[in-house]
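Worked example

This section walks through a single chain of length 267. The input is the sequence exactly as stored; nothing has been trimmed or padded.
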Amino acid sequence: MLTYPAIDPVLIQLGPVAIRWYGLMYVMGFCGGWLLGLRRSGEGGAALLSPQEVGDLMFYGAMGVLLGGRLGYVLFYQPAAWLSDPLLPLRIWEGGMSFHGGLLGVCAALALFASRKHKAFFQVSDFVAPLVPVGLFFGRLGNFINGELWGRPTAVPWGMVFPQAGPDPRHPSQLYEALLEGVVLFAVLWWFSARPRVKGQVSGLFLVLYGLFRSFLECFREPDRHLGFILGHWLTMGQLLSLPMIVFGLWLLLHAQTQQVQVLKKT
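Given that input, the structure is written out below as tokens.
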């Protein structure tokens, strides 16, 4: 069993103002995505956006993550509480963000950005997809520092006792997610997008891989206490929300492949 490194979630306290590690992780994720976006803007096949447009895109994306993530959390995970308390989404200091809600928020933000910049939606989403795992990596590190979203009880040697989760050693599922959803997903998407691809392929691969990784990792993560399992003793809300991602991602990949074949036939 490993000792959980109990890190104070507050990095710096300046009077009534507290700078938290979790907030810093969000900033690092956005900054990392922005820097990688600037790099992609200078690459031949990926040079869809100018450096100025990359900065604008990060602003749109940040608003989509924050608004969509918070609204998605209360909609997917606390709908009853939202009905009884309409102002619940505004109390962001109480915590609670949903990746799937953030994804929907980002899609809406990208659609608005693409419309205003007169670009195709899937061209923009293909540009953004390899940048997302950076934010996921730092976000999961923030979850680990906060000692939240811990894993299920385990007997593996690297199990950890999380202060708020009882005396049993648990999977450090936040670190599993940081590895798969962050490092591995980034490596695959960055490599895949290095060559020109049919519009929608990079986005489709992101949806499929994230959905599969998240569904697999939910087997190690403790379900939310107020929800538990959605079906029997195996289906969680995270898996349920990931299923449409996998299906739509597969459709995008197949559709892109069909377009590619048609283009080759014409030439």
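What to look for: The beta strands are 10-14, 17-20.
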